[in-house]
Amino acid sequence: MENHGDHSHLQRQKKRRLVLFPLPLQGHINPMLQLASILYHKAGFSITIIHTNFNSPNSSNYPHFSFRSIPDGLSETEASTADIIALCILLNVKCVVPFQDCLAELLGGGDDDDDDDVACLITDAVWYFTRAVADTLKLPRIVLFPTCVSFFNPMIAVPLLYEKGCLPIQDFQLETPVPEIPPLRYKDLPMVETHDPENFIRFTKNVVKQTKASSGIIWNSFQELEELALTNLEQEFPIPNFPIGPFHKYFPASSSSLIAQDQTSISWLDKQPPKSVIYVSFGSLVGVNETEFQEIAWGLANSKLPFLWVVRPGLVCGAEWLESLPKNFMEMLDGRGHIVKWAPQQEVLAHSSVGAFWTHNGWNSTLESICEGVPMICQPGYGDQLVNARYVCDVWRFGLHLEKKVERGEIERAIRRVILEAEGQKMRERIMILKYKMDICLRKGVDGSSWVGKDEDVLSLANVHDNCEEVNEPQKIDGDTQLIKMVKALCVLSLGLQVYLKEVFLLDSVGYLSVNCLDLAWWTCPRRSSEVIVLSHPNKNFMENHGDHSHLQLPKKRRLVLFPLPLQGHINPMLQLASILYQKAGFSITIIHTNLNSPNSSNYPHFSFRSIPDGLSETEASTTDLIAFSMLLNVKCAVPFQDCLAELLGGGDVACLITDAVCYFTQAIADTLKLPRIVLLPTSVCFFNAMAAVPLLYEKGCLPMQDFQLETPVLEIPPLRYKDLPIIETHDPENSIRFTKYVVKQTKASSGIIWNSFQELEELALTNLKQEFPIPNFPFGPFHKYFPASSSSLIAQDQTSISWLDKQPPKSVIYVSFGSLAVVNETEFQEIAWGLANSKLPFLWVVRPGLVRGTEWLEPLPKNFLEMLDGRGHIVKWAPQQEVLAHSSVGAFWTHNGWNSTLESICEGVPMICQPWLGDQLVNARYVSDVWRFGLHLEKKVERGEIERAIRRVILEAEGQKMRERIMILKDKMDICLTTGGSSYQSLESLISYFMSF
């Protein structure tokens, strides 16, 4: 609630009040009060809760809210009915007058506790009568749906299915799919039993109609869970949708429960083994008969696993509480079971001992289980529970549906399948991936168009005209983008503009718009078209000016100078990095490059390129001694590079130098010219940690390596063995140590390190690195995934690879490529050929010119080799690798494990056969095969039999399937890290902020 910059002419506006009206049922009160807490604590709105006398919330739990009670007019019989539809219809009739009177009084300033103006009404969707009241009082109404979006779409369809004659449901229809709303069957439709089925249709129509007429919908769900359902909904309901859940995760576990919670649940769980307990709770409304209750009891007992069972009073029809339990049931269990009347469910599900949740699949319970990564046994009762259970079990696939009669044997088997068997473990892996996505969606700054970046950021939404008031956005909005969009819409509504923001331009945490790099966003006021609303970021100058804003400054555009090492595996990531910094952050880019292996500037029309002589003779340029080559470049390029950089600095707009780590000579030049230097390491972090250890191992006398050491673990850098150390053969081994020392020393002296990797892949390695290298680290890879497949390849790519792959079966092809530097002898080449042929599987093989020592290309192939294969093999000189690995027919990648290749394989979920040759490849192969475990290391001599067996193990056998499952989990994590709010997204944002500080 601050004012940043010169806005002294602007007046402050009063704080705004929101009025919320929950439906008086447990599963509806909880999310409404959670939403109220979010809007109060995270966005600063004043809150008034209107509630019925029936099931009224405990106001003492919410001292900062004001509560207004209205009579509901229900008789004792009406309030205790089990007919939920009849109850809801009755409430919508009897609450009209008292609700309207109460709301009118609030609008008139009749609330003595606070004189804030009312900005908006938020009601449960079931309160359809409130639309007419809101319209009468000229107040915007936003609807809360405390269900999943996937439920609301079939709810919309139910009246239409009645009109088509498809409902009521007949027995023969139960398993029949509903074509209008896949993947549901007729038995999954959200029907609720009621005395008058026609009432249910009228009720549904009223809810749907008045929701569509509202100013927007708030969902206790999140985009990553229900992306398709939200897309479908927005086609039918062209009003703002705000999926800002899960609500309960915004705060530490708390409760608005109408039933007292038994805290002995937690102390009992503390004594149980991890992931061993089946937690059983069927919510606040579901009932069972005595026979079903006893079958549940025996099923739990017979599973031989510990259980925590919530038996609320009234769960068993006609019983008070536990009268229906088998005699001496609890004594027989000897402490293995614990029964309570109500449990603190969020705490229970978060407990390490809970292995599964047997649930009725109310949406609150389902969402709480997802949030803690607990797989489910699903036993839905009615309504949205039926839809939720279907999605949990058959779409998201982290639950088991108990669809048959409640029977002890079925129950026992289900519990053991989910807790003990491989099937349950797969469910747990799937739900943990979704839990991870949920964790990310709630992080501060999610979706780079978020209004809040750092804690101290405060953003103002202000009308810049002298005669208008400033409207300050509430301070420090912690939450996901959907929450922020919703808060923005509420603020606009509070201005009285009634604007629906179809396209929302929001600032990211460094003050630049993600869409066009402007630091200014505006909306024209529909009533006064000459006026605009400005969204600004503190302490940032505007990049552009709209209208008469002469008081705003324009900063100069910033330039970055990049210098790649002239080797294929180093040029690619440097040019990808340049593209990211240009297209995603708006920096100007200059590439300094050597004449040797110069990049194709025509592929990058927006960059400027400056060539410098490298001084290498033809012999020096063609050497296979990479250490000697790199050290020579570091000497011969120093003078021309310094001259070129000094000339560029004369332009006055260079912010920073980014060089390959191998170009260590550039640190001294950057220091001389007083320019920050950031290092790009186009390798894994794991490799660099090992590289940094090599000189120390020499000093300890552990190197050079002896044959007896090869399999010995290197204690300083687990899990590497001495044979995995990144040693590169060179004519002078001492040169290798000197070179490594130079690279490490000058990297440590730099202003920071950029990594083409991501946090989730190398978390431990990054943690270890920061202890030795206390400079900023920015892991925001994989670089190539920021854009559609493209290439900075120095070798022409053969596009026939893709047309050939199009003809192959899914996951059947072994793709073979050993990169741009590895070489083999003629014997090894022939063994590779026969190994591929003997596997009987299709293969795409990259044989670049020069791969086989002493030959041009395919001369050493066995005679008539390709003809013998009859189309099962395809050989090219170079392939569009990113496209190849993304192709559905590719089942494995036989690779040299260069980092670019390894990362590209991870990104497409393709398991690997590893054949490293030198340097970082050795480390990468060890991690792929023995740490991440989605690869097979070919460590023996290149021999056709070994090759054939390896290919078949990875493509055809169960071992390969497990590798595929592991790499797909990591692929999913990689996909998330690049989305707005993910780890790479945030790391890139941090780097951009860092550049702007220079």
UniProtKB/TrEMBL annotation:
The keyword Glycosyltransferase applies. The keyword Nucleotidyltransferase does not apply. InterPro entries: UDP_glucos_trans (IPR002213). It comes from the Eukaryota. PANTHER family: GLUCOSYL/GLUCURONOSYL TRANSFERASES, UDP-GLYCOSYLTRANSFERASE 76B1-LIKE. Belongs to the UDP-glycosyltransferase family. This is UDP-glycosyltransferases domain-containing protein.
